[in-house]
């Protein structure tokens, strides 16, 4: 087994503390990764603070992992020692259910394994719970290890492993592209990558942010339009405007107001995951034949496609690199919407 340094929380209202964890011995298909960078996703905060009511402590979050292959099992063919690689939200799935066979492992019905906070055997992860990327090393089966193309720095690539694929997948599924009016609600970690990807796909992009304070950044990321949702006039001006609206907000929104901004056959996709129900008027949905949908990360093959697309288009996250002792402070800034636009932990500081 390999001993790795990690940062863990032991209670929902505690602070991160340095600890050490074991990683399993390499099986034939396993890859040992020296983690270089780990992004801080808002899902880490929901989980660390038990906002989804299913957190197993100690909790080592982190599912935006970028690093270098340190060793490979005897039968590994996809990755070699020294390769630049990434790991996202999943580290295993059943491989047999209809979702897995369709390359949509994130919807595995046979018991998928998330990168952290999933109950597993002691052989899979000593301790019986998966531990994520706030750590110096991780062991992952080769099929769940992505290649990070040359041309994207590991630091700016790390957030693509969750934020990137979470936006790329619905943007592709609902055909964001030339001639399409796309709005992104919330310009945080997910949202800012979404603006970049939607613009690179050729869509006309509008940001719907709480204020206009990040307008210049939004335009730099590729948005043509930028509106403040604190201004009621926004909801009048943009009525029936969009083909696709992607909601990345981590808090509850009056979703009916946003549904009314959809044009004929438009879809509003929920990505943000607050633990509260949404409310929509039947009339709002029926009018303009609108749809309300959701989407969860993306499959492994599509994650690789997204990384290649981002490398081709020069897309990485805008990041602020922090040391491991700054995780608690970074969480507070994310909660205050004071993130520009993703905190990334430098694993060398662990
Ligand atoms: P983030 O960096 O905190 O960004 C969220 C943004 O939402 C903020 O920057 C802010 O944007 C806006 N916002 C926050 N509070 C708000 C409020 N009370 N009212 C209106 N707008 C508000 O978070 P993230 O990492 O992008 O994650 C966003 C959400 O997506 C989280 O709930 C996370 O768990 C979820 N998520 C889902 C998936 C999936 O697969 N579906 C994957 C990853 C994350 P402005 O400042 O521009 O208003
Ligand atoms: Zn995430
Ligand atoms: Zn499956």
TrEMBL record:
<dbReference type="InterPro" id="IPR011032">
    <property type="entry name" value="GroES-like_sf"/>
</dbReference>
<dbReference type="InterPro" id="IPR047109">
    <property type="entry name" value="CAD-like"/>
</dbReference>
<dbReference type="Pfam" id="PF08240">
    <property type="entry name" value="ADH_N"/>
</dbReference>
<keyword id="KW-0560">Oxidoreductase</keyword>
<dbReference type="InterPro" id="IPR013149">
    <property type="entry name" value="ADH-like_C"/>
</dbReference>
<feature type="domain" description="Enoyl reductase (ER)">
    <location>
        <begin position="14"/>
        <end position="345"/>
    </location>
</feature>
<keyword id="KW-0862">Zinc</keyword>
<dbReference type="Pfam" id="PF00107">
    <property type="entry name" value="ADH_zinc_N"/>
</dbReference>
<dbReference type="GO" id="GO:0008106">
    <property type="term" value="F:alcohol dehydrogenase (NADP+) activity"/>
</dbReference>
<protein>
    <recommendedName>
        <fullName>alcohol dehydrogenase (NADP(+))</fullName>
        <ecNumber>1.1.1.2</ecNumber>
    </recommendedName>
</protein>
<dbReference type="GO" id="GO:0008270">
    <property type="term" value="F:zinc ion binding"/>
</dbReference>
<keyword id="KW-0479">Metal-binding</keyword>
<dbReference type="InterPro" id="IPR002328">
    <property type="entry name" value="ADH_Zn_CS"/>
</dbReference>
<dbReference type="InterPro" id="IPR020843">
    <property type="entry name" value="ER"/>
</dbReference>
<comment type="similarity">
    <text>Belongs to the zinc-containing alcohol dehydrogenase family.</text>
</comment>
<dbReference type="InterPro" id="IPR036291">
    <property type="entry name" value="NAD(P)-bd_dom_sf"/>
</dbReference>
<dbReference type="InterPro" id="IPR013154">
    <property type="entry name" value="ADH-like_N"/>
</dbReference>
